[in-house]
Amino acid sequence: PKLLNEVEDIDLFIHDSEHSTPCMLFEFELAWEHLADGGVLIADDIHWNDAFEEFVSTRIPDGNWGRVSRSVGYAVKLRCITAALSSRDVDPPFREVSPLADERFI
User: Fold this and answer.
1) Spatial contact of 39 and 50, defined as CB atoms under 8 Å apart
2) Which phi and psi angles does 88 have, rounded to 5°?
3) Smallest Cα–Cα separation from 45: which of 76, 16, 74?
4) Could you tell me the CA-to-CA distances from 49 to 18, 22, 70, 78 in Å, in that order?
5) Each residue's pLDDT tens digit, 60-83
6) Are 76 and 39 in contact (CB under 8 A)?
7) Interatomic CA distance for residues 93 and 85, integer angstroms
8) Which of 39, 80, 86, 101 could be joined to 35 by an S-S link, Cβ 3.0–4.6 Å?
9) pTM of the prediction?
């Protein structure tokens, strides 16, 4: 947390540390607050608990997140793009599983 106060917004956050639900939610929330518009949050081992699903369902329920595989998820912080897409009645580009995902892991 101290380092985040010393840098500008971050473009990429990768979670691959302690995988308890409280720790993951804490890190997701903290990173999200400092993530730049268009920044990406990536989390590994999301199948170990429901922290990632809980986070995205409360913070970005309308899309801009998905799974790369069964164990890796991503969320994209798109303030202005999400508003533009909804005003044109277009589905967000990142909904379910990435088309690049390996189906063996989903």
Assistant:
1) no
2) -100, 5
3) 16
4) 12, 10, 12, 25
5) 877 889 999 999 999 999 875 444
6) yes
7) 9
8) 39
9) 0.72
